[in-house]
Amino acid sequence: MATIFYEADANPAVLKTKTIAIMGYGSQGHAQAQNLRDSGYKVIIGLEAQRPSAQQAVADGFEVFRPVEAAKRGDWIQILTPDESQHTLYEASIKPWLSAGKVLGVSHGFSIHFKTITPPEDVDVVMIAPKSPGHLLRRVYMEGRGVPSLLAIHQDASGRAREYALAYAHGIGSTRAGVLETTFKEETESDLFGEQAVLCGGLTSLIKKGFEILVEAGYQPEVAYFECLHEMKLIVDLIYEGGLGRMRYSVSNTAEYGDLTRGQQVVGDATRAAMKEVLARIQDGSFAREWMEENKTGGRKFAALREQEKRHPIEVVGAQLRGMMSWLPQGAQPPAGKPETKERRAAKVVNA
Asked: Are 76 and 103 contacting, i.e. CB atoms less than 8 angstroms apart?
């Protein structure tokens, strides 16, 4: 069973005399920074001044410094930028100022576990990974509650790395809910597997294939969209609230019997074998190497796959149907695309 830490296990005072430099001010960056500040910690932001997120951080009352200056000033340097750009940020701005006694923190173990970043041996290297998007981490904190986090120690140079990590977890509110101890290996590999085989890759592929089969069989695309995508939220919400049992209790007997007798036919041994292969490619580092190489060479395959998915009929039909749903929040439609990283822009120039 996992070791779980709570409020009584943390000593927030050990970090309140230190400066925490948050690198990035996106989903996790803005939430962790604001929660830490509201918990009485000294927080600065590391970003280039021209970035919109830097301007937002200033508007939110933070001191914003260029990453190299933030790393110089920070006792704890928390990297909250995308996995694919962390190596460049680390080498250019963090590594020169990562001296003995400092703490390097992350919220996902990718760069440390797959060694795109190799910290010096005289610093603590820790992970506090909230199990929620940043906006939820912030909202729940403001309500006086917290979301669970994972804690892992990669290096304990000071002999106090766990104490510091728990103080950080306390600052973002996670000790209110519980902090589970894990390892960088376990967090990274299980997280990638979940994303690829179940939560993102597996789920979206299942939805699309169900939609395609119904349409090919002559059913209206709009009806297929409702049955295979729209109602997914109803089922997932029930599972989220009370596990598979709550979902099965809440649906009709017909649906439950269909679940129990037909689910294994769709997602059975062949799928299990494919999922094991996905996990193996994560464990041996193949996926990490592929992903980093994709970014080094301009991200052309990634961009092409994104464009292909935007044109899938389920997206076209879905956009039309969601226009009928007045209860959906404004701006819920997917954006045109995520901003490019400096690395991708540079690679495109080099490879043009």
From this structure: yes
Sheet (strand 124-130) strand order: 4-5, 179-181, 149-155, 124-130, 103-106, 76-79, 19-23, 42-46, 64-65
Is 108 labeled as catalytic in the residue annotation? yes
β-strand partners of 44? 21
Tell the residue number behind the tokens 């970043």, with chain if given.
117
Among residues 246, 229, 213, 195, the alpha carbon closest in space to that of 314 is found at: 229
- For the entire predicted model, the pTM comes to 0.90
DSSP 93: I
What is the residue-level pLDDT of the chain in tens, covering all 352 positions? 889 999 999 999 999 999 999 999 999 999 999 999 999 999 999 999 999 999 999 999 999 999 999 999 999 999 999 999 999 999 999 999 999 999 999 999 999 999 999 999 999 999 999 999 999 999 999 999 999 999 999 999 999 999 999 999 999 999 999 999 999 999 999 999 999 999 999 999 999 999 999 999 999 999 999 999 999 999 999 999 999 999 999 999 999 999 999 999 999 999 999 999 999 999 999 999 999 999 999 999 999 999 999 999 999 999 999 999 998 887 666 655 565 544 444 433 323 2
What is the pairing mode between strands 179-181 and 149-155? parallel
The one catalytic residue among 87, 108, 154, 170: 108
